Amino acid sequence: MITARGPVPVFDHLLRLTDRRGLFEHARLSVPRREHGYCVDDAARGLVVICRESGSDFNLRRLERHYLDFVLGCIQPDGTCHNRMDAEGAWLDESSVGDWWGRALWGLGVAAAHAHSETARLRALEGFRVAARQRSNHSRTMSYAALGAGEVLCVEPAERAARDVLRAAVRVIGPIAADPAWPWPEPRLRYANGTLTEALIVAGAGLHDAAALDRGLVLLDFLLKIETRDGYLSLTPVGGRGRGEVAPRFDQQPIEVAALADACASAYRATSDPRWLVGVRLAWSWFLGKNDAAIPMFDAETGGGYDGLEAAGRNRNQGAESTLAMLSTAQHARWLSGLR
User: Fold this and answer.
1) Which of 186, 113, 116, 121 is nearest to 153 (CA)?
2) How far is 320 from 136, CA to CA, in rounded Å?
3) Of all residues in the chain, what percent carry a pLDDT higher than 90?
4) Is residue 185 part of a domain?
5) How far apart are CA 326 and CA 308, in angstroms?
6) Per residue in 25-46, pLDDT tens?
7) In the predicted model, what is the mean pLDDT of residues 134-154?
8) Average pLDDT over residues 279-297
9) Which domain, by its residues, includes 282?
């Protein structure tokens, strides 16, 4: 996976986790746990990662079809979404508007812009329009949705549904806090913190809203500073982080690294300011072993990502979320190496 020209993502483990129906959520070590079934959260993330890959590789295009079908299949006529499906193909939940709804919009927005056939792009756009009829009052849910909306605007600049989603996300995330020492709009950092900053950046760029863009950049700068320790990332753990809480803290999740890398890449594209590239480098270095446990967080031969960084090392299970987080960050690192 590591070459003289930078990282080359390896998709062997993602292929192992995927069958004709979808992407298995969990693994015991590298073996898929079929009994835990599938979820839209991971299929949407998978759609984002696979649509970024160019070329006509048969296996990757097969994954793209499977993930797109799965995400479209979760959406109900009113725009609400199912999330969890068992191994036999039965939905296990009532459709609603949770984070998975936002992630579905994210995946569909990316597919509408970057899927490898016109038919797939049109199907994704139609699915996006249906799901975009709904709204959530939760900042992270709307932030995920905003990422998809921003992608749609790149190819359909007049798309009203996407613009409305972006405006709603900016409102729900809210203003920067008045205290310059803690500008974060919540009393604690929680999860997907980078996604909140990226949503504001994407909305600011897509809507030509300079205030939203500036708000996202200020919050991303704060997040990078508070999550960098001795020259490497020391992430907000599962339990969150508040003012005055000293790093390192555990467990740290790879998905947080990916969200930070995504945000930094979007910040660079919006501003051309090279300082944001530092965050991308730090994120990839975290997977390489520059982290609080000084241990690599992926299998370079198979492309499997480990499920969490713990005080004693790593959780050796290689589930879909962590594998996709690592692959996404590797894609950004590959892009970064191409800028040099």
Assistant:
1) 113
2) 25
3) 94
4) no
5) 11
6) 999 999 999 999 999 999 999 9
7) 98
8) 97
9) 1-35+210-340
Note whether 46 and 29 are same-domain residues.
no
Tell me which residue has tokens 């129906």: 21
Q: Residue 90: is it exposed, middle or buried by C-beta count within 10 angstroms (0-12/13-18/19+)? A: exposed
On whether residue 186 sits in a domain, the answer given is no
**In angstroms, what is the C-alpha Rg of the chain?**
19
Can you read off the two tokens belonging to residue 225? Answer: 């500073």
d(CA 105, CA 124) in angstroms, rounded, equals 9
Same domain, residue pair 279 and 306 = yes
Q: Determine the distance from the C-alpha atom of residue 203 to the mean position of all C-alpha atoms in its chain, rounded to a whole number.
A: 16
First and final C-alpha spacing in the chain: 19
Do 27 and 100 lie in one domain? The reply is no
Q: For strand 38-39 and strand 31-32, is the pairing parallel, antiparallel, or unpaired?
A: unpaired
Total count of domains within the chain: 2
101, two tokens: 């709804």
The residue-averaged pLDDT of 120-132 equals 98
SS3 letters for the chain?
A: CEECCEECCCCHHHHHHECCCCEECCEECCEECHHHCEEHHHHHHHHHHHHCCCCCCHHHHHHHHHHHHHHHHHECCCCCECCEECCCCCECCCCECCHHHHHHHHHHHHHHHHCCCHHHHHHHHHHHHHHCCCCCCCHHHHHHHHHHHHHHHHHCCCCHHHHHHHHHHHHHHCCCCCCCCCCCCCCEECCCHHHHHHHHHHHHHHHCCHHHHHHHHHHHHHHHHHCEECCEECCCCCCCEECCCCCCCCCECHHHHHHHHHHHHHHHHHHCCHHHHHHHHHHHHHHHCCCCCCCCCEECCCCEECCEEECCEEECCCCHHHHHHHHHHHHHHHHHHHHC
Q: Please, are residues 235 and 172 in contact by the beta-carbon 8 Å criterion?
A: no
Domain membership flag for residue 106 = yes
The reported pTM is 0.97
CB 159 within 8 A of CB 143: no
Q: Are residues 264 and 295 in the same domain?
A: yes
